[in-house]
Amino acid sequence: MQNTAKPSWLKPALLAKVFGIAFFVYLFFGFMLLPCLNTLTSIFRQTDASGNADPLAVIRFFFAGNMPRFVWNSLKLALFLVVTVNVVGVSIVLLTEYFDIKGAKILRLGYMTTLIYSGVALVTGYQFLYDNDGILTTMMLTYFPNLDPNWFSGFNAVLFTMTFACTSNHALFLRNAIRGIDYNTVEAARNLGAKPLRALWKVVFPTLIPTMFSLTVMTFITGLCAMSAPTLLGYDSINPEIVRLAGSSVADESFPQARAALLSIILALFTIVLLTVLSAYERKGHYLSVSKTKARLVKQKIDNPVANVLAHIYAYVLFIVYMTPVVMIVVFAFQNYPAIRMKTLDFSNWTLLNFFGQEDYSYMTSRGSYRTREGAISGLFSNDATLGGIRTSFLLSAAAAAIACVIVVVACNYIFRNRGKKRSVALEYSLLFPWLLPTILICYSYRTYFNSNDVWYVLGNNLYFMDNVRILIIIAYTVVKLPFALRMIKASFYAIDEELEDAARNLGASQLRTFLRVKLPIILPSVLAVFALNFNALFTEYDMGATFASSYGVTYAMVIQSMCLDEGLYGFNVNASGRRCASTVFIMLVSGLILYLVYGVGARDLGDRLALRDRRRKRWQRLTGKLKE
């Protein structure tokens, strides 16, 4: 009898595994490793005026030119931010979670506003207040005529803006760390005669050291790689210079592309060193509470009346600083065009025009005659530029967030099935590789490497050409978000009981069916949360879009950034300030909704959801009963 069994290498499972490994290797080398290596080697491929190879030409130009100034400016900003952000960030957490401050819940909402608007939207909000024609600057000029109208620019403006913008990490992570403190240790210190500040310094702070160290490193990298604030507020740092050089040519200046590559590599070296130090520190261990039964932290009263008053004043001054841009942006989003241009509130002219609809605009020409442009004053959802930016950012962000989740879910399933094996470790570290590199280095590498018809990895297609750049942006978005998605989704896989998988296997279910019917429903809430957070971050992202700088990939944040540059010139681009205010409100609504779905509805367990549904049902029954009466 003839044996008709297929060879073992033709089995579908083995073929799928081989194809999957080959495809991942293709993606890793083609879209992570090779573009960055091309950027590195481009520094040493320069020639002199005679056409002879000169590998050190860019290095010599670096030390002879003004490039060290950009590096020093970024280092200076990062170092100052480490101090200011930690001071303000620790303050807002202690004032709302540790000390007994009146109105702490309201204060917390104000301090956490940076979670719902950031990047270009946040910077433009501060500009709306403090710019040379901003609301507060205009008010101050009436009382202080000698004040420089351009006082809010350069290093001080960037430091001020980013100090309050970067405390969102403290509001999330340090707040959770404070809430996890064992109150028994604090109470024991108080019983031994320690005052609140001494107990805070000797008992509480040591348990926060790991979190504080991580936040410090994150803040330093954020300052080093800052893009939005330096670009809009006129501060010469590394990232804006990289974007400028990337769009320059040899006819304009010497070695523009190679200089941009060198600055990108310098950023990468700083990031790698910092992440290496962080990893080494984490391996040393942490301070932990040794109490067997933890007690919930009770807020500490400030016994000294003077210190108590000063703490309350400080808390509400910070609240005003955080809330003023938000309130002003929201209020002016419903003002008409003249009120916004003159920065004056007119409560008799509330309008929705900044969001919907169009109006004619009349202006005086240079010859003294009036001219009218029909529909020149347009709202956010009636303007082609803003609608195009919203559409582009929505599609690119949703696609990248979804692809990142799919890749990580498949990878995590493979990692857990092959736990302890070298190939699973290699896969995990490959997905974490983008964390070693600054975002702008990845995007710049894509822009230069794929702007050619000679890249065989993509079959000779120029991915930077016309509409293809959108595919390139999606790839960049996906690669940048892979490490975060991996850390979050991998944690959810630990919640899967292995006995469930064994039971499904014993019932004859295949690996694919087991994954779809058993594992996926368990991790799905975490996957959706990661998708929402990634979409939220990418939808308002500016740095990557500005690095690609293509008219076919203009994102929403880029539209907001450039909206007011030529406002009203020759009757065009009218009401850009109103649309910018409306855009910020729209971003806050979208971000707030996503955060509520993730941390509000999504964070509730099954018992909480059932209890909430029961309360709603009883409330509805009482309401219908009263209506029947």
Give the proportion of residues in helices: 55-70%
Structural category is mainly alpha
Annotation, overall tally of beta strands? 2
Q: How much is the average pLDDT? A: 76
Give a quick account of the main beta sheet: strands, pairing sense, barrel closure: 2 strands, antiparallel
Number of helical elements: 25
Low-confidence stretches: 286-293
Morphology call: globular
From the alpha-carbon coordinates, what is the Rg to the nearest angstrom? 28 Å
**How large a portion of the residues is in β-strands, by DSSP E?**
under 5%
Task: Record the strand order, biggest sheet.
Answer: 1-2
Span of the ends, CA to CA: 86 Å
SSE sequence, one letter per element: HHHHHHHHHHHHHHHEEHHHHHHHHHH
Throw out a few tags for this protein:
two-stranded antiparallel ribbon, single chain, mainly alpha, 629 residues, 67% helix
List the SSEs and their pairings.
Blueprint: H1 12-42, H2 57-64, H3 67-98, H4 104-111, H5 119-130, H6 135-143, H7 154-165, H8 168-179, H9 183-191, H10 196-224, H11 228-233, H12 238-246, H13 256-282, H14 305-332, H15 337-342, E1 358-364, E2 370-378, H16 384-417, H17 422-432, H18 439-449, H19 468-493, H20 498-506, H21 511-539, H22 543-548, H23 556-562, H24 576-601, H25 606-628
Antiparallel strand pairs: 1-2
